[in-house]
């Protein structure tokens, strides 16, 4: 009430205090999102209310009640305590009597603010209304408790109105959206936050079939989750959990719409509740909102996780469509975002086009304006690259704090029968595209980046009769078609995209549509050489490859169904990606006694070669000042004329000294290895190892595959440890580690890397 009674004037004649106007200030940095014109002042929302407090009478009345208690009833309470009573009933009655007028005044203010809140947030207002009604209906021994509850509601409601400045719009899911800048070191990333309510069911795992309906309300800006239980007679019970009391989210793999939430109840005590959402999409949207809330209220200067949008589109040499909303907002067919999450802007947008006739400057401006229209956020172009010919590839790479990103947009050879040409196109790009750290020239671009995204019109087709393809499409049965997809078949044979991942495809083929419609595939095309058949196919794809033990999740993968200017449908994919900070040790550079070490006990490699020369290993990492070399192998054997087994003992292997010794830094680092021959310094295979699982006092085993120039050339195994001094063992939980998968359930996520061929185990 102190904050509420800011602008007042006093009427000395009747000893009243009239509050004629309440001015609620909104932060100047808050972005204004308006669908309709508004005449309110830029940073103030004003509402007229009237509260009259008879100060003199109230003061005298309270004084009398207090004196009566101290003179008489106090002794009775004191005697009751001496007799073992655990309550003070007379004091309780005195307080209830003292607060009767306060009850009424609080109710008046709450009703006024409730009306105002409906202007800003109907969802929250309806929830507050039910809370107020419930507290007003209570009395008796719990009257004081409900007064405290009402005061808490008043405080939260007033705070919420202060922060919600101007209405953004009414949406189908009854939520309000507003813009809040999230500040990171040296950058401002605007995120869209919302208060959302979901109806869910609490799963009773011990009594199957029994469940209790709940509503979950996420206040991202306020940093709170309200869990409301549906009671009989339209009554509701609720609990509010602040962001720091939500300890973990546990996703069920077997039941895709189930989520466990671990709440902190008391110090060192927690409680898990399992909720059943209406769909898996609703569960994912809820998790995204909670992650957004956690990220917003984190006390760290830099983010642990960012979101990336990737869009690819063959524009068919025609101008850009007037509207690109469905593409930018990931709406359409396939795995799409829930409506709750679709308006949350991503941190990075990457657009790849093929057959784009729009000039570069105009296209960049078109994208920038479209992003401004659909996300209400100003984005700054990072880099634009164009290919000079119809077929080929372009790439962009950059560092985001301590994480390297690479993006390749390509257009491969067309034609149903030209599979080998497309494979060769891919290998040529992989080997010849100059991208990333030049010190890593020994490695192809698939190993130069923490995360590499490869997308475009890859032009791989379906090997099936046209009529069969159309029949499966009409029945929306895509699994039989994916089994004859040329790209999938070539990946299974390790011909292309070795160890890349692609999300499961659940949308129809994106090529070749009749322009102006998405109802008809045009599978015959007249060429100078005759009639050409182009069967419907998934030509437009998004794949990615990430270092082991990094965090990346594909939240959507689909195509639009309303952009019809080209014979291709635009494809979109959105990703949640873990990133590392530009780590600065709080303890400074390590002393000699605090130095961490990377130690190898032995390494054995099987390389594809008929040569019997000696080999050595080079080690590269951003945690090393410079690359290091081992001595030549001291064991060598061959059971096959085309393969050679080479080994190094500990005395042949160099101990590596990281530039920083903190475990928080080292658990995000990776080590690149290349096996080279002594006679020509030629690489026979490369790989990447994560240091995270190797940290400890005892050596850990590793086993992974070797590849060279896009082809698998063998495998490598060994034993190593990362020894971290005890003084440098402090670490923290990453935001993406806050969500886990239920360990008691089996099954793996769909759309991951294809399994390796027999004989070459791949262990992260």
UniProtKB/TrEMBL annotation:
Report domain Inositol polyphosphate-related phosphatase positions. 304-585
MF GO annotations: actin binding; inositol-polyphosphate 5-phosphatase activity; phosphatidylinositol-3,4,5-trisphosphate 5-phosphatase activity
* Keyword Nucleotidyltransferase listed: no
Any single Gene Ontology cellular-component annotation: membrane
Membrane topology, as annotated: Peripheral membrane protein
Keyword terms, alphabetized: Actin-binding, Cell adhesion, Cytoplasm, Cytoskeleton, Hydrolase, Immunity, Membrane, Nucleus, Phosphoprotein, SH2 domain
Is Hydrolase given among the entry's keywords? yes
A Pfam cross-reference name: C2_SHIP1-2_2nd
Signal peptide annotation: none
Subcellular localization, per the record? Cytoplasm, Cytoskeleton; Membrane; Nucleus
User: EC number(s) in its UniProt entry?
Assistant: 3.1.3.86
What top-tier enzyme class does this entry carry?
hydrolase
List GO BP terms, alphabetically: cell adhesion; immune system process; negative regulation of insulin-like growth factor receptor signaling pathway; phosphatidylinositol dephosphorylation; regulation of immune response
Family, similarity comment: Belongs to the inositol 1,4,5-trisphosphate 5-phosphatase family.
Q: What is this protein called?
A: phosphatidylinositol-3,4,5-trisphosphate 5-phosphatase
User: What is the source species?
Assistant: Cyprinus carpio (Common carp)
Upper classification of the organism:
Eukaryota, Metazoa, Chordata, Craniata, Vertebrata
């Amino acid at each position: 009430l102190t904050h509420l009674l800011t602008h007042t004037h006093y009427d000395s004649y009747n000893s009243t205090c009239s509050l004629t106007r309440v001015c609620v200030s909104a932060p100047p940095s808050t972005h204004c999102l308006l669908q309709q014109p508004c005449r309110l002042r830029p940073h103030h929302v004003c509402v007229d209310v009237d509260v009259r407090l008879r100060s003199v009478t109230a003061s005298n009345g309270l004084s009398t009640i207090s004196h009566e208690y101290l003179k008489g009833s106090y002794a009775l309470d004191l005697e009751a305590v001496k007799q073992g009573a655990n309550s003070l009933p007379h004091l309780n009655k005195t307080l209830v009597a003292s607060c009767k007028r306060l009850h009424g005044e609080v109710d008046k203010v709450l009703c006024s603010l409730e009306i105002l809140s409906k202007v800003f947030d109907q969802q929250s207002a309806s929830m507050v209304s039910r809370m107020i009604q419930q507290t007003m209906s209570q009395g008796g021994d719990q009257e004081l408790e409900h007064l405290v509850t009402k005061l808490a509601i008043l405080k939260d409601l007033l705070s919420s109105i202060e922060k919600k400045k101007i209405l953004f719009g009414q949406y189908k899911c009854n939520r309000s959206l507003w813009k809040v800048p999230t500040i990171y070191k040296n950058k401002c990333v605007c995120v869209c936050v919302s208060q959302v309510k979901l109806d869910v069911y609490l799963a009773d795992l011990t009594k199957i079939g029994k469940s209790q309906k709940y509503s979950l309300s996420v206040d991202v800006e306020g940093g709170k989750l309200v869990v409301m239980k549906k009671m009989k007679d339209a009554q509701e019970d609720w609990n509010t959990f602040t962001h720091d009391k939500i300890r973990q989210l546990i996703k069920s793999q077997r039941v895709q719409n189930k989520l466990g939430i671990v709440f902190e109840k008391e110090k060192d005590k927690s409680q898990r509740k399992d909720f059943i959402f209406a769909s898996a999409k609703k569960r994912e949207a809820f998790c995204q909102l909670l992650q957004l809330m956690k990220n917003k209220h984190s006390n760290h200067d830099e983010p642990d996780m960012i979101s990336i949008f990737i869009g690819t589109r063959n524009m068919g040499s025609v101008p850009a469509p007037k509207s690109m909303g469905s593409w930018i907002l990931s709406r359409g067919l396939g795995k799409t975002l829930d409506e709750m999450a679709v308006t949350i802007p991503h941190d990075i947008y990457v657009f790849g086009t093929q057959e784009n006739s729009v000039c570069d400057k105009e296209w960049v401006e078109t994208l920038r304006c479209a992003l401004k229209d659909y996300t209400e956020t100003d984005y700054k172009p990072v880099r634009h690259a164009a290919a000079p010919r119809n077929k080929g590839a372009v790439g962009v790479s950059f560092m985001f704090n301590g994480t390297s990103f690479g993006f390749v947009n390509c257009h491969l050879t067309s034609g149903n029968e030209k599979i080998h040409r497309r494979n060769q196109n891919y290998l040529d790009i992989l080997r010849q595209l100059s991208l990333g750290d030049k010190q890593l020239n020994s490695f192809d671009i698939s190993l130069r980046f923490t995360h590499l995204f490869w997308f475009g019109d890859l032009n791989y087709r379906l090997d099936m009769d046209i009529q069969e393809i159309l029949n499966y499409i009409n029945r929306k049965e895509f699994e039989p078609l994916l089994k004859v997809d040329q790209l999938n078949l070539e990946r299974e044979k390790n011909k292309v995209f070795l160890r890349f991942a692609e999300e499961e495809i659940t949308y129809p083929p994106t090529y070749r549509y009749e322009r102006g419609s998405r109802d008809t595939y045009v599978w015959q095309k007249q060429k100078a050489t005759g009639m050409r058949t182009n069967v419907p196919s998934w030509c437009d794809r998004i794949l990615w490859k990430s270092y082991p033990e990094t965090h990346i999740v594909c939240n959507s993968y689909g195509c639009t169904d309303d952009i019809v200017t080209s014979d291709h449908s635009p494809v979109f994919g959105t990703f949640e990606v873990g990133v590392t900070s530009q780590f600065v040790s709080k303890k400074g550079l390590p002393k000699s006694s605090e130095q961490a070490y990377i130690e190898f006990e032995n390494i054995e490699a099987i390389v594809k070669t008929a040569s019997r020369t000696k080999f050595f290993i080079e080690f590269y990492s951003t945690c090393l000042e410079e690359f290091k070399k081992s001595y030549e192998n001291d064991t060598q054997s061959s059971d096959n004329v085309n393969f050679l087994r080479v080994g190094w003992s500990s005395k042949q292997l160099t101990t590596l000294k990281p530039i920083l010794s903190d475990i928080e830094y080292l658990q995000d680092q990776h080590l690149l290895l290349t096996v080279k021959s002594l006679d020509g310094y030629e690489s026979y295979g490369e790989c990447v190892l994560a240091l995270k699982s190797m940290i400890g006092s005892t050596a850990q085993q590793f086993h992974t595959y070797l590849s060279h120039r896009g082809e698998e050339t063998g495998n490598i195994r060994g034993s190593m440890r990362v020894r971290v001094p005890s003084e440098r063992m402090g670490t923290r939980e990453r935001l993406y580690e806050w969500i886990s998968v239920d360990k008691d359930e089996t099954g793996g996520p769909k759309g991951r890397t294809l399994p390796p061929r027999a004989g070459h185990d791949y262990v992260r």
